[in-house]
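Bug #2210: token dump truncated for tRNA modification GTPase MnmE?
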Amino acid sequence: MTETALFRDRDDGSPSAGEPRDTIVALSTAAGRAAVAVVRLSGSRAGPALDAIAGARPAPRRASYRTFRSPTGGEVIDRGLALWLPGPGSATGEDIAELHIHGGRAVVAAALEAALSVPGVRMAEPGEFTRRAFLAGRMDLAEVEGLADLIEAETEAQRRQALRQSSGELSARVEAWRERLIGAMALLEAAIDFSDEDDVPAGLRERAQEEIGRLAQDLSAALADTRAERLRDGFRVALVGPPNAGKSSLLNLLARREAAIVADAPGTTRDVIETHLDLGGVPVIVADTAGLRETADAAEQEGVRRSTLQARAADLVIWLEDAADPTQPSIEASSALWRVANKADLAGAKKGEADHLISVRSGLGVEELIAALTEAARAGASGEAIGLTRARHRDALSAAVAALRECLDHPLPEELAAELLRRAAGELGRITGKVGVEDVLDRLFASFCIGK
Ligand SMILES: Nc1nc2c(ncn2[C@@H]2O[C@H](COP(=O)(O)OP(=O)(O)OP(=O)(O)O)[C@@H](O)[C@H]2O)c(=O)[nH]1
Ligand SMILES: [K+]
Ligand SMILES: [Mg+2]
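Reproduced locally. Full output below:
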């Protein structure tokens, strides 16, 4: 599928399907000492290399216990499991051999050296196994991105989302939109074909137009839903408010460490200090900022400027104020803003107009605040349907919506409308890598480690 489209567009001299490629080898498990390490080979020389190192080739897809030897000196390297996974039904579409050995540095180095001594075998580049899987059509681009995210996932909800994307859920959703578009295109084409005849089936153009309208709505709704991207990148919370309200104290409490300096003097914090939390499986980035006030101090002024930027970029602003000295929020938040009154332990403290009353010092109300934060992060970062996880997806989908809107806004001749639909379908194809993938490939694969 991806293969043909991809190779038709390639004229950069890189190898195409069917041409012999180098056989690659790498340590596929993490570097360092471990109980077991996996050295993996992919390519036409994987079989001969396995013969040379492990003796007779094991039966396909069955783990066999073998003695591994150096093909040059015959010296025993280690004993372990050998796997033979012949292509094209393998992960890369090529012949794959795996050596499961003991995970010591010297053992791994010797096994790699043994593989490299086989003619035609070289070390893999970062992400090269996955790149071959992609080129062989075993994975599409959105799935590869999901796999990259899976390796990077730090929380449970991120892991689940990445696994769904790498298993093709996003691709299937995009593909369903593309098929509907192609259906609308077919209606338009039919309207063009019949236009010279008397018995034009009634309403072809109208039916196409209705489907385009529904599609534009569905795609716009997907665009407006930023939850999947939030989950991938983290839900951003900004702590802002007047000086000395206890913003840095609250950050330290949430982070459970002294991440920010707390002091009696107002104007203590200048730089933005971020801490990463895992709230109910959602990654949350909390930013402590400089207290907002008029000041003659240049460094503090810059701090105040950064506070306002943080507030604008945040998914949630916590306006922290002194419960004994309430202050109206003086900041522009592009999303939700909670007023939280701190220092409830002090005389004269009252909740007033605040949404929460807390004391960082005594702990009062803090548990409730964290529960509310967890709820907000969950709501802001997880949905049922798998959504767009990257700016790249968003850009392609916006361009598709723009083309559809153009179709809807003007009474265009069928030929022009069909051309716009083709453009929209092409944009959707970019998400799964059916169209125009060259520019993203190198950047994406470089983000993988060697052996993946
Ligand atoms: N009594 C009381 N004091 C608190 C509480 N939270 C923080 N403080 C004190 O308030 C003072 C200021 O705290 P910070 O955390 O530095 O306040 P901030 O908002 O980060 O201040 P700037 O960075 O200067 O804007 C410190 O002396 C804290 O110990 C609280 O719940 N109760
Ligand atoms: K302070
Ligand atoms: Mg501070």
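Output looks complete on our side. Confidence is low (pLDDT under 50) at residues 1-19. Marking as cannot-reproduce; reopen if the truncation happens again.
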